Amino acid sequence: MKRLMVKLGLTVMALGTLGGVVAPSVSASAAKKPTINNTDLKRYYKNAKSKTVFYFKTYKSGGKTGTMLIFGDFGSTPNVKYGVPTSTKLSKNRQTLTTKYKLIQFKTADKNKTTTSLTKKTYTFKLTKKSSSKFTAKIAGTKANRRLATTGKTYTYTKTKKSPAAAYGKKYVKPALYKQYMKAFESLDATNQKKYANQYANQGVKNMTSNFNYKTK
């Protein structure tokens, strides 16, 4: 994955300081209108209703610093999407951050070779700060292929310092996978059916959590 960053040019942007614009201190009179600051970009955003979580991942590669947008869908079709921010813009009132990004596509020609590329289409989403811990963003797409967007349904996300991936995986992903595997192993006796369904469901949760909590090597 580290080589992937270099190939796709993921070091073109670093969002750690809002594109170089350091957020000013907020005066008492302006405190009623929360503004996006640098710390916000180093947190996770979770919404239980949509079963989605996302965050900006800062990394270093080739001596340069870059950013990825990682979106975890813990719903009926669990998956993780990796995006490459191409531009960001902070609104004049500093309450909304507009991010344009391209998704990373993975193609497997055979079991030993996986190629990557960026989507030609550029997507956009807006993160709006409502309070110190509440933000809004929109989700578009089908249940099997959701993403952050400027259209679709609006959800209120809670900002958190700790990744919620493991908790969301256990609460939402495992029951869904367990049900699917119980059906897949219905030809087995009851004991082995439950055994393997539980085993594969746990592995699915582990993989989902690991993919979301992306770590560079």
Automatic annotation (TrEMBL):
Signal peptide, first to last residue: 1-23
Entry keywords, A to Z: Signal
UniProt key word Signal: yes
The protein's name: Surface layer protein A domain-containing protein
